[in-house]
Amino acid sequence: MKNQEVTIKTIEHATHDVLHIVVDKPDGVSFEPGQATEIFVDKLGWENEGRPFTFTCLPEDNYLEFMIKTYPSRKGVTNELLSLKAGDHLIINDIFGAIAYKDEGTFIAGGAGITPFIAILRNLKAHGKLGNNKLVFANKTKADIILEKELRAMLGHNFINILSDEEVDGIAHGHITESFLKTCGLAFDKTFYICGPPPMMEAVEGMLTNLNVKKEQFVEEEF
Ligand SMILES: Cc1cc2nc3c(=O)[nH]c(=O)nc-3n(C[C@H](O)[C@H](O)[C@H](O)COP(=O)(O)OP(=O)(O)OC[C@H]3O[C@@H](n4cnc5c(N)ncnc54)[C@H](O)[C@@H]3O)c2cc1C
Hints:
six-stranded antiparallel sheet, binds flavin-adenine dinucleotide, Elongation Factor Tu (Ef-tu), domain 3, alpha/beta, Rossmann fold
């Protein structure tokens, strides 16, 4: 699929810096939960500035949904998205992605790295297959947690948060460490899905390797 124009139905903040964008779904668009597309802002001067974003809706939904963390200071695509409104257009391109659900395990996300897991977990829920999958979600502050209520309702005690920059009662404080991972009741012999900024992913992979998780158990994508 090449350069398909879509119209924004709604665009609003999901958190202080994350946009929740819903667009119409062109005929023929199909994706697997966890996959992404390249998005362009349909404005003069932005034709060559495509950036990857993950579908967070279900494959069978009759719309496309994205959760997009914005970086105004970079003056890039996510900053441009902040100026858009319902009725404006985006261009979406090829569909791709490295993260797909294999089997029950642990999802570890940093910040916007949650987006492929939103799609995968929503899809599992829709099919009654959430099972004992666990989610470890690392953020700076509580206000940064994307879809906190929905994830809590979906996963209950299998939704484990950790905040690096804020101390909140009942939520772990600090960065993910090996000893923190050991307290989470994770199945270290099962699959680990990891998505986030490269330094976080590298660190987490190192910790899990020390905890005897094998390379074949990792399913990963860098944001
Ligand atoms: C497969 C995939 C799927 C993704 N899905 C999502 C998603 O669903 N939601 C989501 O929020 N994100 C997602 N991302 C991440 C997202 O693509 C980036 O955040 C986005 O490309 C940022 O675009 P931008 O134009 O605003 O900034 P960039 O293109 O990152 O930056 C613009 C300019 O700012 C400068 N810059 C870059 N990085 C920094 C920095 N760290 N500090 C200071 N200046 C910098 C550089 O000069 C750069 O050219 C995904 C990434 C991948 C690979």
